[in-house]
Amino acid sequence: MNRIPWDKILTFTPLDVGKILLSAVVIVLVTKVQLVSDRLSALLIALPLTSLIAMVWMYHGGQSTERLANHAEGTFWFVLPTLPMFLIIPWMLRNGWSFWAALAVNCLATIAFFWITVVILRRFGIDLMPK
Q1: Alpha carbon distance 12, 9 (integer Å)
Q2: 3, exposed or middle or buried, with CB in 10 Å at 0-12, 13-18, 19+?
Q3: What's the pLDDT at 2?
Q4: Helix/strand/coil (H, E, C) string of the chain?
Q5: Please, what is the Cα angle at 25 between 24 and 28, to 5 degrees?
Q6: What pLDDT is stored for residue 131 in this prediction?
């Protein structure tokens, strides 16, 4: 991770635009389902749709199976520090917090949980943030 190739990251092809549109359709459909059923939309969001779509795009783009495996494993570890948010936000909202305040506090808490996870996993030989 010496130098980030911004030229490759910020260059969009017609296929990239198609990927963006398809990915956006998934998000819009889930938010539309929420209008009818909170639980069904929560189930759809809980599915790792974003990760699955990203891995399909990565595979289609010629990424090696090792990189796909690294992506899947990293996603597992990165999900863990976000999980408390899904219990803390409902508690805060039900106890009088405004949406934006609850969201801001949870973003900060998630960042803290992320770094705590990184430090703990390093002790077990799992380095999520190589130097």
Answers
A1: 8
A2: exposed
A3: 64
A4: CCCCCHHHHCCCCHHHHHHHHHHHHHHHHHHHHHCCCHHHHHHHHHCCHHHHHHHHHHHHCCCCHHHHHHHHHHHHHHHHHHCCHHHHHHHHHHCCCCHHHHHHHHHHHHHHHHHHHHHHHHHCCCCCCCC
A5: 85
A6: 67
Number of neighbouring beta carbons within 10 Å of residue 107: 11
Buried/exposed 59-87: b ≥16 CB within 10 Å, e otherwise: eeeeeeeeeeeeeeeeeeeeeebeeebee
Q: Are the C-beta atoms of 75 and 48 separated by less than 8 Å?
A: yes
Give the mean pLDDT per block of 10 residues along the chain (131 residues): 79 88 88 89 80 88 92 89 94 97 96 94 88 67
